[in-house]
Amino acid sequence: MTLSVLAEIMIIILLGMGSQWISWRFQMPAIVVMSVVGLLAGPFFGLIQPESTFGDLYKPLISIAVAIILFEGSLSLNIKEVKGLGRPVIRLITIGALLSWILGSLAAHYVAGLSWAVAFVIGALFIVTGPTVILPLLRQSKLKPRPAKILKWEGIIVDPLGALLAVLAFEVIIVLTNGAADSSRLLEFFVGFLLAGLLGWACGRGVGWMFKKGYIPEFLKSPIVFTIVIACFTLADEIRHESGLLAVTIMGMTLANIGVRSIEDMRHFKENISILLLSTIFVMLTASLTMDTLLDILQPEILAFVVLMLFLVRPLSILLSTIRTDLSLSEKALVGWIAPRGIVALTVSSYFASILLEEGYTDATIVTPVTFALVFFTVCAHGFTLEPLAKKLDLSIDDQPGVLLVGSNPFSLSFGQFLQQLNIPFKIVDSSSERLENVKEADLPYHHGEILSEKTEHSIDLTPFDYLITGTDSDSYNALVCSTYIPEYGRHNVFRLSVEEGETVKDLKPTIGGRVLSDEEYSLTALSEAIESGFEFKKTPITEQFTYQQYNEDRSEKEIRLFVHRKSGELEFFTPDSEITAEAGDQVISLIPPEEKSS
Questions:
Q1: pLDDT tens readout for residues 85-123
Q2: Which terminus of the chain is more solvent-facing, meaning fewer CB atoms within 10 Å of its CB: N or C?
């Protein structure tokens, strides 16, 4: 039965988002799941055939989606973020990219059997490790800040650079083949990409200027930004094919570094769009492959080429390019291993396969199988090994979810000391040095600064913390902090304490602020007074013999339940509307009065 276009679009979106959910639920690399799902739905079972269904719109749709994904990624490239990492990043995107190009071309010629011309073009393209694959992996792996930032910057910047170098390689080949008659093509190439860069910069500055002057209303900001991104990409691509990626990357980096607050406010919306596009496009690409292409992947020379790219080309290019930098050996090893290829490699390689064939290079027929083999095997290899390798090299953050405590007070001080006993990561944040004195004396981790400041995300690493609890002396400030960080942590993991008992917090709209901490809705004042009157934290293990039901029957009315520490390491906090249960191996954490300490 032939599906309608609408039905196929619906299936592609369902498969893409279903793959994201499966990867989250079972802690699997999302890119791997999407690749397998696309292969099953396309060449294996023939459920969907995106390329034939969308026809002439297939490649333009994918190109626009890639442009938006790359733009969204480049918006996170704030120069402040790479403070202290400038030299390694510059080395990777220059010397590292050049070495990868040369070594990859040699491998493509001598191992994959491609002619020098085709190998030269494809070698340039294979330097890409773009945001379509790197960012989802970093989102799941919890790397330490240094290696995570290096991989992110390299991936986003090298993505358009790889396409640019591939075009340059092709133009050089045409000039060498046809002689002086086509020498002007090189000049056209450089002028075209210079214009694309200037167009991207101008679009970024123009959007920033309109936002700062208030010429665009809030409800139109996101639609207008995406419209300009598509226009920037299309115009640049019309000027010079494959230059659109460079234009939108420069546009995003320009906006990221001119201090436009509105762009930061739109960040989570853009991330949601990017995830949706990434999920659907990857399924479309893999579903459009044919069984012949998949069978070609199993050729010995193609498999040997992939092995060389994995175990020799990438590690050697990283090792040589980072000589005399401050990267540790473990950081070099991790960066040297992680280089998954993604959507840009697949889409751009199909373009070069067709034009190389038109120029008479018959061996270009295996470009698509070689590209997909490299994409699939690198995605699988790096997707499944990034997290364990990072742990082995001590470059990952502890798996135990941490707690960020906003506001220094008797409760947060005592709570932090107890979390320290449980080996749960935490940090107390306050803008007042005076309020932090007791925290400093207790030698607890803290950050002196404004949690709402833009500088905060560059001065402290928020990655280890999965939960946020606000407890300052201002209800409205607590609600503001919670509302700001809900997109980051999720509504289920953000909590607030009211200053006093009353209706101030209760009357807030449910979309504002976090969840109210503690099962009886104790205020910050009440919890601090309890600590000062001798209440202490207690952990009650739940066992097969002593069940959670028995615990609830035995506990006194004065006991204040705070959270359940699961045997998996996760924390589940009590709120007035929560329905928490505990199983054998879990611990219930609560505050008990002085008279109950002995029991």
A1: 678 888 988 899 999 999 999 999 999 988 998 999 899
A2: N
Separation of alpha carbons 515 and 505, rounded Å: 10
Phi and psi at residue 592, in whole multiples of 5°? -120, 150
Q: What is the pLDDT of residue 503?
A: 45
Computed over its alpha carbons, how large is the radius of gyration of the chain? 27
Taking Cα atoms as reference points, which of 332, 383, 366 lies closest to residue 150?
332
CA distance 589 to 586: 10
pLDDT of 13 = 93
State pTM to two decimals: 0.74
Helices (H), 467-523: 475-489
Look-up: residue for tokens 């006991």? 559
CB atoms closer than 10 angstroms to residue 294: 18
Token couple for 377: 């095997």
Who has greater pLDDT, 598 or 414?
414
Question: Strand, helix or coil at 572?
Answer: strand
Q: What percent helix, strand, coil does the chain show, rounded to 5? A: 65, 10, 30
Query: How far is residue 493's CA from residue 218's CA, in Å, rounded to a whole number?
Result: 28
Please calculate the CA angle 155-160-165 and round it to the nearest 5 degrees: 110
CB 18 within 8 A of CB 282: no
Burial code (b: 16+ CB inside 10 Å, e: under 16) for 248-269 equals bbbbbbbbbeeebebbeebeee
